[in-house]
Design brief:
Keywords: Hydrolase, Metal-binding, Transferase, Zinc. With about 270 residues, this protein is of the alpha+beta class. About 20% of the residues lie in helices and about 25% in strands. It starts with a strand and ends in a 5-residue tail after the last strand. Bound molecules: zinc ion.
């Protein structure tokens, strides 16, 4: 897999797509390397989970720096488990980066072609997605939980990039970040029914001896959407890491019963030097 890991003896801190860093910088975070205390230890980037704001600000600073940016460059979507995507321009710089600047409302995805802006999405089991259009130098970040996945937010991102930047799916690379996977993601018919309607039975495993319970692969759904939209298989990359299997290394809402932090997916086009 074309992936670069960065870490220390204490474990991994970043997983990065192996994209040329002079073209685009991107990363997914782990738990380590931040300043928050339990249950948010230590690199929590979510203000809304009950952590100290000054800790989250410092953690976000470190995350922005990991892609060569600054906290002030960050742009954050509200993340409402929808499928809305916002086009981010220079005027949006800093939106959602600190508690007194609200995030971009009602959207779960953001796209831009402005160098220097740092797009970020948060997750703790939901799938963070990063998009890079090599031909038009455009990027995107999206949060895809089961509702967003069933709503086809992955396809919506490509559609908006196409409308805005003339992006062609064959030029796009997509990364699926650390997220809960089929090994750990038990759902009932409330979730399984819309998944079957949108994606068939392939993403669902029936649980033996547990009627009405299934193991769901959000990643299978998202990859199917991307392939159907025309992204070549070889340009769909999955980090393959399960948050719920590794709560010591990653934040998992389910494994930690809701009391935990948020990891992030972050992407930035370098400023011209
Ligand atoms: Zn797992």
């Amino acid at each position: 897999m074309l992936t670069k890991w960065t870490g220390s003896a204490g474990g991994p801190i970043w997983i990065r797509p192996a994209w040329p860093e002079n073209e685009v910088r991107a990363a997914f975070s782990f738990r380590k390397g931040g300043v928050s205390e339990a249950p948010f230890a230590s690199l929590n980037v979510g203000f809304h989970v009950g952590d100290k704001p000054e800790c989250v600000i410092e953690n976000r600073r470190r995350c922005a720096a990991a892609v060569g940016g600054q906290l002030e460059d960050m742009v954050v979507p509200e993340q409402v488990h929808g499928t809305g995507v916002a086009v981010v321009t220079r005027d949006d710089r800093g939106r959602g980066s600190v508690p007194d600047t609200p995030p971009i409302p009602d959207v779960d995805g953001v796209i831009t072609n402005v160098p220097g802006l740092t797009l970020m999405v948060m997750a703790a089991d939901c799938v963070p997605l990063l998009f890079y259009d090599r031909a038009h130098r455009a990027i995107g970040a999206a949060h895809s939980g089961w509702r967003g996945t069933v709503g086809h937010i992955a396809r919506e991102m490509l559609t908006r990039m196409q409308m805005t930047y003339e992006t062609q799916p064959q030029d796009v690379e997509v990364w699926l970040g650390p997220s809960i996977r089929q090994c750990c993601y038990e759902v009932d018919d409330r979730v399984a029914d819309p998944v079957r309607a949108g994606f068939g039975t392939a993403p669902l495993l029936t649980r033996f001896g547990k009627p009405g319970k299934y193991l769901l692969s959000l990643q299978t759904c998202i990859q199917a959407d991307l392939r159907q939209a025309g992204v070549p298989e070889s340009q769909i990359h999955d980090t393959g890491v399960c948050t719920a299997c590794h709560p010591e290394a990653l934040f998992s809402h389910r494994a930690e019963h809701g009391k935990t932090g948020r990891l992030l997916g972050v992407i930035r086009l370098p400023s011209p030097s």
